[in-house]
Structures are given as structure tokens and as C-alpha cells.
Amino acid sequence: MAEFLVAAAAFLLITVAAGLVRILQGPTAADRMMAAQLLGTGGIAVVLLLAAAAERPAAVDVALVLALLAAFAAVAFVKGATSSGSGDPELPEDDRG
Amino acid sequence: MRLALDLFTVLAVSAGAFFFLAGTVGLLRFPDVLTRLHALTKADNLGLGLIVLGLLPRAEGPLAALKLLAVWLFALLAAATVAQLVARVALRRNGRSPGGSAAG
Amino acid sequence: MNGAWLLLDLVLVPMILAAALCAVGARAQFTGIVFYIVYGLLLALAWVRLGAENVALAEAAIGAGLTGVLLLGALARLPAAAPAEPGADGSPGTALRLAAAILCAALALGLGAAVLALPEPAPGLADVAAAHLPATGLGNPVTAVLLVWRGYDTLLEVVVLLLALLGVWSLTPDPLWGGVPGPRHRTRPEGVLVFLGRVLPPAGLLVGAHVFWAGADRPGGAFQAGTILAAVWLLAIMAGLTDAPAVRGLALRLVLVGGPAVFLGVGLAGLATAGAFLGYPPDFVKPLVVLVEAALTLSIAVTLGLLVAGAPERPPR
């Protein structure tokens, strides 16, 4: 069973590695950010699979932290994309982009 | 029983891996930012959910299972909000590459 | 058993190298930052693969939580037309680049040779640490090393963090001294950012407390927990739900020095109770370590949060 879980983790890694290509290609900043998001979600899944395969429950805490903080980089990105750097893309007055 | 649970794990994890693959294909093949965003945030979180589901029978107890579910819930929350916010940014830029230092 | 793990390593290691190369070599700063964020994530995976959950937790919290916010925030403040082209004003010429590349390659080769030349099993104090772990009452050998056996290092580390914060504050323009770091963030009142800023910090407090408490017996500890708390604090600030504090506040400064002060106090008390600086009386090792870690968690959280927030930009209220 452990081999299957590790093999599944390796498969997932190969899958999300394709996201690296999207970060290189873009073309927009949003594309690059979302590709990093894909690697983040995939990374969480890989950690969970490895934790189960190696029977190291402490590794689940790593996945917990990764999931909790998964939105942070993207939040900083959308903040930086507003005209003032401290606005909200949902605010009309920031719509000068 | 053990065999049935193992079979369940294999099936759910495989299905989860399939959705990750689908998300990646979408990320690479879809024509514009918004469709790519759509492919990603839905497919990979469904994949993560299926993998969590598959690992539940192997959790050490109810608390460990709860932690696994919490991982998925956090990831869902992040994906939903990030998709919304990044889509706003992408819409505003109207498809062109962001100006200034953020340019690719 | 080994086949699947080998396959995983064969995928993971090239990915780490590729992400690192792209982070360094990317022409646009934004692309480099995204690769660097991904690089941190992959490193966390590598630490999990090696069974080093303590390090993986720290890498996950710092890499996923703080580094991205710090670098993207810095990028947003750079002038839009920052020179990125090689050769432009003052950037190193070909000879200097070549010399740097040769030196780096030599260093990498030397390190590789040193690792390969290590005897098998590698010499270390792991066995000694494991043998003496029961005497501390702690279950996590990493916490025992950091706070009991090598307390000096950890004490100096938290002082260095504090000094780094002073360094950032020293960039404050005179009229704003003691003021509020960063801009006041505005958000749409019932928008998505506000929603995230309301939902995540309580969950982050819970996870942070869990990681701190687990640290005594399982992977976790003050640095990891403090980083998580700092990250959710910054999120609440970015969501406009709260403002960064004015750095001249007395309460704030007490929290900042609280961790190192408690650590130092316990260490000095060790002179009387255990006969050595940073020693613990044998029956009270675990409670004292937990006390020090609690104070450190708060101090580290506030220090890291303020480090990312930067130098004061607005006058004190």
C-alpha cells in the first residue's frame, strides 16, 4: 500500500510540474500566480500521501500549515496589483489599473 | 474489510490524481486567463478532496481524520477566494500583461 | 518499497533544481518571485520526504506564508521601470559574473565532495541526544536541542531577529519615527478579502497554538508557531480589518523583548538552580521550556510581522 501512495505522490508531482511551464510562459502575471497555486494544492496532496505512506502523522501538520497559508502569496499579489498597492481589486476606485 | 478499505483508498486516490491531471491539462491548454483559472481552482481542489477521502480510512483516529478534513477545507477556502481575487485583477487588466514591474 | 521512493526522488530533485535555476535566471522580477515561492514549497516537500517535519513546518510557514508577502510587497514598491537589463548602470560585467559563477561552481563541487566523503553512518550527536532525551521530559529531540542543550544558539537567534527589526526601523525618516509601518489597507466592506481576513486568523490562532503546544513532544515549536501567527496577523492587516501598531507603543515593545527576556531570565536563574547559565533544574525542564517557548512564540510572531510590515511610513497617531 505504501508503494502505491508514494507512486501516486510522484505522479502528482509530475502533473503539477507542468505548472512550472506556465509560470515560465505566462503570459499574464495572473497565469503565473495561478500556476503557483496549482503547485501549492498539489504539494499539499503530496505531503498528505507521504505522511500516510511513511506513517508519520506529524507530516499532516505540514500540510495543515501549507493549506492554511495557501492564499497568502496570492493576496499579496492582488494587493500589489492595485493602483495604490494597498487597495482591493473589488473596490471601484482602485479600478485604474 | 482491510482489503475493501485498501481498495477504496486506491480508487479515491487514483480519481484524485486524475482530477489533478485534468487541472494541469486545463492550465496548459485552455486559451485565456479566466478559463485557465476556472480549470485550476475547481479540478485540483476536487482532486485534493478525493485524496483526503481516500486517506480517511488510514487515519489514526477521529481527530486525525478531522485534521485531514481541515486541510481540505483550508485549501478550498484559499482556492475560492484566490480565484475570485485573481480573476478581478485579470479582468481589470483586460487580458494584457500587467504594466511596470509586474510584467512578465 | 524502494522503487516508489526512488521514483519520487527522481521527480522531486530535478523540480527543486529547475525552480531554483528559474528563480535566479528569470528575466522579470515577478516571475523570479513566483519561482522562489514554488522553490520554498518544494523544499518543504523535500524535508517531509527526509522525515524532518520540524524543518518542513518552518519552511512551509516561512516559504508559503511570509516570503511571498515580503517579496511581492517589495516588488509593488519598486519603481515601475526598475532596471532589469544586464549591463545597465552598475550591474556586474561579464568578467565579474564569470568569476562568481566559477566560485559558486567550485563551492558546490566542494560541498558535494564533502558530503560524498562522509563516513557511513555519518558522525553526529544524534545517538547521544536520543539517549539523554528522557532526562528532559520532552518528546521532541529538536526542541530539546534548541532549548536545553544548545540554548545559547537559540537565545542569540531571537536576539538577532530583534536586531534585524531595529535595522528595519532605522530606515524610518525622522518625522515618522515611532510611527505606523506600511500603508493603511482599504478593502471593499463585505468583499472577498474581508471574508478571508475574518475567517483565517481564528483558524490560524488555533493552528499556531497547536503547533506551539505540539512542539514539546512532536514536531513543532516556537519559530513555526510564531511564523503562523505573524502570517495571519498580516492577513488581518492586509484585509483592512486592523491596522499595524505604532512602533513606539510600550505594550508592543514589551511583547517584542518579552521572549528573549524570559529566556534570559530563566537562563540566569539556571546559575542558581542548576549551576550553569541556561541550565534547568532537573525536575522542571519541561515546564520551563514550555514557558520560554510561549514567550518566544509571541515575540517571534510580533517581530516577524513587523519585519514584513517594514519601516514606519505614517506618523504615530
TrEMBL record, chain A:
Keyword Ribonucleoprotein: no
Annotated compartments: Cell membrane
Membrane topology classification: Multi-pass membrane protein
Keyword vocabulary terms for this entry: Cell membrane, Membrane, Transmembrane, Transmembrane helix, Transport
GO CC annotations, alphabetized: plasma membrane
Highest taxon of the lineage: Bacteria
GO molecular function: sodium:proton antiporter activity
Membrane spanning residue stretches: 34-52, 59-78
Homology family: Belongs to the CPA3 antiporters (TC 2.A.63) subunit F family.
Name by which UniProt lists this protein: Multiple resistance and pH regulation protein F
Organism (species): Caldovatus sediminis
TrEMBL record, chain B:
Nucleotide-binding among keywords: no
InterPro entries for this protein: PhaG_MnhG_YufB
Source taxon at top rank: Bacteria
Transmembrane segments: 7-28, 64-87
Keyword Transmembrane helix: yes
Keywords on record: Membrane, Transmembrane, Transmembrane helix
GO MF term list: sodium:proton antiporter activity
PANTHER family reported in the protein's UniProt record: ANTIPORTER SUBUNIT MNHG2-RELATED
Protein name listed in UniProt: Cation:proton antiporter
Organism this protein belongs to: Caldovatus sediminis
From TrEMBL, chain C:
Keywords: Cell membrane, Membrane, Transmembrane, Transmembrane helix
Protein name as catalogued: Sodium:proton antiporter
Residues of the signal peptide: none
Residue ranges of the TM segments: 28-48, 55-76, 96-118, 155-172, 192-216, 222-242, 254-278, 290-311
Subcellular location: Cell membrane
Predominant localisation class: membrane
Family: Belongs to the CPA3 antiporters (TC 2.A.63) subunit B family.
Topology in membrane: Multi-pass membrane protein
Cellular compartments per GO CC: plasma membrane
Residue ranges occupied by any Na+/H+ antiporter MnhB subunit-related protein domain in the UniProt entry: 195-310
Native source species: Caldovatus sediminis
Organism domain of life: Bacteria
Domain MrpA C-terminal/MbhD: 15-79
InterPro entries tied to this protein: CPA3_antiporter_subunitB, MnhB, MrpA_C/MbhD
Membrane is among the record's keywords: yes
